[in-house]
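Predict both folds.
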Amino acid sequence: QVEYIREEQNIYVNPAWNKIVEHVDTKYLTLLNNDCLPLREHYFEHVIKDMESNNLSITSCKTLDIKTLTQWRVWLYGMFDKLLSKLDLNPVETARRQGWLMTINLDHYQKCNYHIPDDLKVWFGDDWIAYELYKNGFKGATYRNALAIHVLSTSSGSQYIKDIIKNDEEAVKKYHIDYTANVFANKRLKWFR
């Protein structure tokens, strides 16, 4: 069942995430941006199974920026992912969690201070979610053998959005979110370059 919720005006990413967390009545929620496409067949079924088996509270996968990919590399990664999708999901500790495709255990998340602050509009909402879970002792994983293509939205480069992001960068300082340490690590696997 799909329920479509539309605001009269743009409320931005993080307020929309807050609203959906309050609105849904489900154990798991995937926050999937409209410019991100998982390559793994049955990705979500695999993720939920792994989260259940390993008591995970937040998961994500490696993403590939479409701007850096040629057609043959997209094909190659697609074939690579098809082969890996036959295997169990494999977390990696040297990968940053990706906010534009993450699945959250809402039973765990709602035990935290889960409301993303109102002055964070576009950025750092994913860091807030992960930080709240990690500081409350919950576990997460970024899967190395599951890939998604990230297209990047056309509006993200506009001056209007850049100004909002600049405000977010200032606002996040007062919350003392350790948004580099709480995401396992901030380096990429050499194989994916």
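Second protein follows, with its predicted structure tokens after the sequence.
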Amino acid sequence: MNPKEHPIQAYLAQLSEELRGLVPERERVHLVQEQLFWLERRLRDAVLEGTPYEEACRKVVARHDSPKVLARRLAHESYEDAIDTPIYKLLGRANSTAAVIFGQANLYYLLFLQMKVYLPPSAALKSSLSPAQLREVFPEPLPFPDLSWWFLMTVGFPVVMPWVLGWLCGRMIPVGASSAVARVMALIVLSAFVLGSALLPQVEGILYALFLLVYWLPVGILTACLSSSLRRKALRHKTEAMDCRPSASHASIQEFPS
């Protein structure tokens, strides 16, 4: 059989390309060689059962996962198993990473809201407009604008941070970043509603929980997905420029007599 037309060679070459940018180069070579080993074992078993060699090659490849699906699964397993800690085993490395990034930011902001409620700023209003005129522009239940750093933190932080946090998750989690962000944000929204209820009759906490649901959740997911995709493309271009292609064509598929 022509090596260039060998089904297993072609499958592994495509798998190698799908893994490019998802795992480090050494890990990519190892994963491709590992799949070559298992495919050869299945090919040997099929040939020994009496299946013609070329037909056995096609059947072995057809029964395997598609290169794209397999590459994502292998990259996810490689990322999850790279660091062996009890927390990662319990929650998963991707979930733990997203929880630390989004959880810390939300914890700091909720603490800030409690400080704002129980230790209100004593600075005077910094505006040429009267409170009634300001309320015409910023009606209830929006925070009362006073152009102080308290107000800027209250409004600016929740608007900007989901873009930043989602981007960080996408850069740090190679596969499944958006799914990890979605799972973590579901828990954060629930906890924000609980903590926001403790701040009543002040409504900032409840408003923040609603804002997390309708703004942070979709923005965090989309930004993490975009960041992860751009990271992979950058790594692919980098490895292609280095011209180090450990494709399956370097491996020899053992032929067995039919």
